[in-house]
Amino acid sequence: MTTATENAANTNNKAMAVWLVLLAAAGTFSLTMGTRQTMGLFLSPLNTATGLGIGSISLAFAFGQLCWGLTQPFAGAMADKIGAGRVLLTGILLVATGTFITPMMTTTAGLIFSIGILSAGGAGMAGPAVLMATANRLIPAHQRGMATGIINAGGSFGQFLMAPVAGALMLSYGWGNAMQVLAVIVLLALPAAFLLRGNSVQMNAASGVTPVSTSDAIRGALRNPSYLMLSAGFFVCGFHVAFLATHLPGVIASCGLPAQFGAWSLAMLGLFNIVGSVSMGWAVGRWRMKSLLSALYATRALAVILFLIMPKTGTVMLVFAAIMGLTFLSTVPPTAGLVAKFFGPANMATLFGIVMLTHQIGGFLGVWLGGKVFDATGNYNLMWYIDIMLAVGAALLHLPIKEKMLTPVMA
User: Fold this and answer.
1) DSSP H or E run through 304
2) What's the CATH number where 271 sits?
3) How many structural domains is the chain composed of?
4) What tens digit of pLDDT does each residue of 114-142 get?
5) Is residue 138 in some structural domain?
6) pLDDT confidence of 410, banded at 50, 70, 90?
7) What does the alpha-carbon distance between residue 148 and residue 129 come to, in Å, rounded to a whole number?
8) Do the Cβ atoms of 180 and 166 come closer than 8 Å?
9) Do 36 and 124 contact (CB within 8 A), yes or no?
10) Is the separation of the CB atoms in 270 and 159 below 8 Å?
């Protein structure tokens, strides 16, 4: 017969285990995402050093967006089968390697390899599909909404922390050395690979659940209109956030503002996304997730409209970055929550990885078109108009989603 003291100890142990999982997952996302989201600061120095042109370098960054997305369904499937720990270990090492060798690259192909394949692919392996699915496997169901918000906030905290660190390193040691120091910092995430080991096969065996195969889960998801609409909306999110993360420093420079506003604006994006992500993690358990997503996309459209008509002062830039930060990646908790609600946690890493792929296809277009538009027109105005139209479309697209548990169609 257990005593009150033993019950209290068990409760404390469970709470400690939950927080260790969250710390490991959020910390990993903080380091990998924080490093990736500072890359916009290196766009101009890379152009000066290589002479390749903003359009060519933007292509390398765009491939990074695409590879980050392409990696996640496969990384999710591997994590579901062989365990998250091995996948995360490989991903962290690839991020560090790709970031470290980037200053040595002098061609577009070399930058695509270091930024677009190694670093971005590694970040995809250690990205939200694997991290959030692992958290859903290790954390009780009633805590999963807040858990996804906290993990997502970890990525934002990384951006908030790493952007000014990268800016300071660039001023003190030059852009190349700064990038290599960031590569070493990423290795601090290695212990998380041990804490987050395990896979969904073990979870199903422990619970007595017979899992749906990965191929059947994918086929069932791709036949479901709600899942497809959710994925299409996340495409718009990717277009928006990748364009901002890569080109916001360029937008600020084109307005004639000092370069430090670029780093500060990226930091504001990260800081306020912490607030947005945690708030959204709390909200997903209280309101319909599709309604929250519609509101977020509508807010983005309105914020960009107001930005276009306001004078481009330093204060306006920082306030705009703060508002964008509130909606920046706060789409992730309700999107991940809907995937888990539709299909359960067993194949979530794979199915959310596919949704992340659509996000990154949008990211590829946002980064690449941003560079092309700037080279052709000397400004980013056309990109803002496209962004407004896409955001309004995404707000409307989420309204017909049927928010209920779905059964994947078997082959």
Assistant:
1) helix 289-309
2) 1.20.1250.20
3) 1
4) 988 999 899 888 887 788 777 777 676 66
5) yes
6) very low
7) 11
8) no
9) no
10) yes
